[in-house]
Amino acid sequence: MQSAISLSLSSPSPIARSGVGSTSNACWPMPRSLRFCGLRREAFDSAASFDASSLRLARFNLQPKQSTLSKVSAVLKGNGAPSSSGFDYDLVIIGAGVGGHGAALHAVEKGLKTAIIEGDVVGGTCVNRGCVPSKALLAVSGRMRELQNEHHMNSLGLQVAAAGYNRQGVADHANNLASKIRSNLTNSMKALGVDILTGVGTILGPQKLKYGKGDSGDKTITAKDIIIATGSVPLVPKGIEVDGKTVITSDHALKLESVPDWIAIVGSGYIGLEFSDVYTALGSEVTFIEALDQLMPGFDPEIGKLAQRVLINPRKIDSYTGVFASKITPAKDGKPVQIELIDAKTKEPKDTLEVDAALIATGRAPFTKGLGLENINVQTQRGFVPVDERMRVIDANGKLVPHLYCIGDANGKMMLAHAASAQGISVVEQVTGKDHVLNHLSIPAACFTHPEISMVGLTEPQAREKAQKEGFEVSVTKTSFKANTKALAENEGEGMAKLIYRPDNGEILGVHIFGLHAADLIHEASNAIAMGTRIQDIKFAVHAHPTLSEVLDELFKSAKVKVSTSSAVAEPVPV
Amino acid sequence: MSHSHLLHTSFIPTAPPSLRRRPRWAAPVPRTHQRIQSKIREIFMPALSSTMTEGKIVSWVKSEGDKLSKGESVVVVESDKADMDVESFYDGYLAAIIVDEGLSAAVGSTIALLAETEEEIELARSKTASPSAPASAPAAGNNDAPKVLDEKPSPVAAATPTPKASVGSAAVGALGSAVHPASEGGMRVVASPYAKKLAKDLGVDLKGVVGSGPNGRVVAKDVEAAALAAAKVSGGGGGAAVASPVAKPSGVELGSVVPFTTMQNAVSRNMVESLAVPTFRVGYTITTDALDALYKKIKSKGVTMTALLAKATALALVKHPVVNSSCRDGKSFTYNSHINIAVAVAIDGGLITPVLQDADKIDIYSLSRKWKELVDKARAKQLQPNEYTTGTFTLSNLGMFGVDRFDAILPPGTGAIMAVGASQPTVVGTKDGRIGMKTQMQVNVTADHRVIYGADLAAFLQTLSKIIEDPKDLTL
Hints:
heterodimer; A: alpha/beta; five-stranded parallel β-sheet; 14 helices; 25 strands; 27% helix; B: alpha+beta; seven-stranded mixed β-sheet; four-stranded antiparallel β-sheet; 19 strands; 26% helix; disordered N terminus; transferase (chain B); E2/Pdx1 (chain B); transit peptide (chain B); Dihydrolipoamide acetyltransferase component of pyruvate dehydrogenase complex (chain B)
C-alpha cells in the first residue's frame, strides 16, 4: 500500500565527480541508471572519488570509502558462477517482493550469483496486494472526485454531466496494472539471469536452506549470504472474523468485489485513509474506528489537522476515536456486520455498530512462518525478525547470525516498499565489501489521498523532543499552496508544506507536505536529507516557473538559517 | 465547501515567487482594544464591502493554538457578495475562536482573539469565558450588534434558522418512530455517517426519523424528508412562513421555507432601506435603429449591448452631473467625481451590481472586455468590493426577456437608476404626418427627488436619447 514501486534510493555515491583539477568544480554525473517501468537497473557503477567539499556532512547516507576506483562491473547477461567456492549461490533471497527484487538486481550488478525464492507470486504485497493496485483505484477515485465536484468544474469553466463508474471496470484496471507490473518485475529479473526458485524457503542452518512445497521434493541449496525478505500480511486483531466478503482486509478490498453503502474502516493510518478516499469517491459512506485519541496518528499533528479538515470533515465520513473494535462479526442470515466497540483505555463496552462492511486496516504483521528461524536460534519479537542497523539478524542470545540478513516489512524497521528495496541494496553493498548504513530518516513516505500527503524525516514533536535532548534549536517554516501559481491554475490551492530545521546549521530535520502531487514533491527534500544538503545551499537551486515545486522553493527560501552558503559559487559556465 | 475558498485570493501571482507580494485585505481591522491590557488583539469581522453589516464564517483556516504570521490567511468570510480570505496583520497565536464556522457575526464584532505569545493564549481564552462587552460600535445601521460574543453557540443551533424546535417531535407524530432491530426501543439510532452529518446541518433530531435503509438504518434521504416534513408542519402551524405553491422552478423544494443567504439578506436590507428615500420616476421612449445598426457592425469585435448602453448613459451623465449625484445626509448634494455605471446582474441565488468605472472615459472595446471580466467574476463570486460597491448610477435591463417597461428600486447611496426595456419594432407617426416603422425601447429612471428634480431627469433623458439616436460618439 505504501508508495508505488519506485525504488527511490539511489545507490552508492550521491555525486560522481571526476575530480580532475583542484580548481575545477564542474561535475559530470555518470549516466548511472536506466529506468523502465519504474524498475531501476544500474548500468554503471560509478567510480566514486569524492570531492571533499561534497562531504561536509557526517550524516551521509552511506559511509563512503575513499576507494579510488571500485571495479567496473558489467551488467551480467548470465548470472555467473558463484565467486566463493563451495556454495551453490553467492546470495539467496527469500521472498520476491519489491525488497527482494531490489536486492537481486543490485546483487547481479555486483557480480553475485543470485537466486530468489518466491513462495507465492513475484512482486509480493506491493505489486499484488498493496501499493500498485491501490494506486489504480486511487487514480479512479481522484478522477471521480473531480468530476463530481460541480463547483470545482464550474470554476474552471467546465460542464460535465453526471459522472458514473462501472465497478468491474475499475476492478479490472487495478488487476491489469498489478499483472503488468508483476510481469515487468519478473522479466527484469529473468533478463539479468536471476534464478527464480519456486516454493517456501526454509533456513536449515548457517548458509544452508531448502525450498519447495515442504515435502520430500524439497531441494537443499547453500549460499554464502542469505537475505530474508518475506514481507508482511494484513494484521487482523483478535476477535475479528474476516470472511473476505463483508469483513475484509486490504487484500480483498483491492479486488473491489463490492462497493458497500456503508463501510467501517478500522484504523485511520494511511491504508485506512487511502481506502476512505476510494470508497467515498465511489459513493460509500465511511465510519473510521481509531484506537488512539485522534485520527491519522503518525502524521505530523499540524498536517493531520489540515488533512482532516480536507479529507474527512467535508466527506461522508464519521469516526469513533479512542475505541477498539473488540469483536466484528460478518454479515449473515440477513444481519448486517456487527462491530462491538470498547473503550481503548477502560476496556468497557461503548457502542455497537451495524454496517454493510468492515475493512480491517490496523496495520500489517510480519510474515515469518515456516522460515526455520528456530534452526539458527533466532526468536522473533512480536513476529519481527530482530536486526541491527545493518539489517544483520540477531539471535536469541543477542549475537549476530553470520551471513544472514533480513530486510523489509519482516524486520519492521520501516514498513514501506521502497525502504525494503533500499535496505536490500544496502545489504548487497555490505556483502560485496562496502560498509553501508541506510539513513532511514531520508526515506520518504506518501499517502495517496486527494490531495496527497507526504513526509520525510521527523515530525515537529519528534524534532522538538530530539532538540531538547541534544540541546539544539528547532525552527519551523511553512508555505501554502494558495500562493502557488500552478496550484491555483489547477484550482487546487488547498495545502501546505512544512519544513522543520536547525537554524544554527541549516540541517533539514523533516519536511511534510499536504497538497496537490505532494508525493512527487517530497523527493527534493528527501534527496537533500540523503545527500546532507543544507538549506542555505539548496535555497539557491532554481525551480521552473510556474510549477508546484515552487512550493518547496519558497519553503527553503523562507527558512532563516544563521550560516551562509557553504559551497563556493560555481565558475561561470558560458551558455 | 472544500474547494470553495480556494481561489479567493484575488491575486494570481505570475511573477517569480520571490517577487510575489500577496495583497492584503484591509480586513481584520486590527484595532487594538483598549480594554484588554496585554498584547491580546481581537480579530474583528471585517467590513468587506460598504453594504456589509454581517459576515458568515465559511471556515477557519487556522485552529486555536496555531501560530499566525503576518499576512497569513486566518479565516474565510462570506460577505454579502463574495467569499474572502481574511489575513492577519500581526504575528501571534490564534488564542480563541469566538465565532465558529457556519455562524454569522456583525461587522466589527470580535470573531477571534490573537495572542502575541503562547503564554497569553490561556489569558485570552479566559477572556472569552467572561465576555468583555461588545467590541467597538459595529458598522452603521446595525442594531443587533454583537450577538456572538457569549460562549460559543452550538453550530447546529445557529447554523439553522429553519424552524427546528419541533422537528423531532413533529416528525415523530407524523411518521412514527424508527424501527430498528438494534435501536433498543428508540434508545439507539442507527444512522449512516452522511445522514448524521446532514441531520446536524439541517437541525433534525435523528431519534424521530424513520430509517428506510437496510435494517431500518437512517440514511441521508430520510433526514432530508424529515427536515422537509418538519418545515411543513411548523409552517402550517405558524401560518405566514410557508411559501405559497407556485409553478415549480428547477431546484426549489415546494412547500419548504428557505432562509436567505447572506447575499439575499443584503438585498432584503437594501430594499427596505430604499423606502426611506423619496423617489419619483420619469419615462422616455428612445428610437434604437441607429444603435442597433452600430451594434451589428461592431458586435464581432466583442462589443456588447450592455457596454453600449453603459457608455451612452455615461456620456449623457457627463452633461448632467446632478443625475450622477447622491444625497448622503439629507442636507447636501454629493457630486461624484467619477461616472461609474453599475449594472444589475442576476446570479445564482441573488443579484449583484458589477461596476464599470469611469465608463465615460474608457473606449467601448475596453469597456466591453471589462464587462465580460466582471460578469465572469460575479458568477464565480469573486468580485472585489470596489468592483461592486462604487457605482454612482445604476442600469437594470430586462429587455432580453421581452419586458417592454418596468420600474426599478433605487439602490441606497445612489441618486438614480434606469430601467431599460426591450427595443421592439413600433409603428410611429412622424411630424410630417407619415407613418413608419421604428425600433424603439422604453427607459424609466427612478431618482431621489431630494437631489434630482423632474427637469433634471427630463433633460438627461433627452440627451441620452440624442446620443442613442445618433451613436457615433459611442465609438470614439
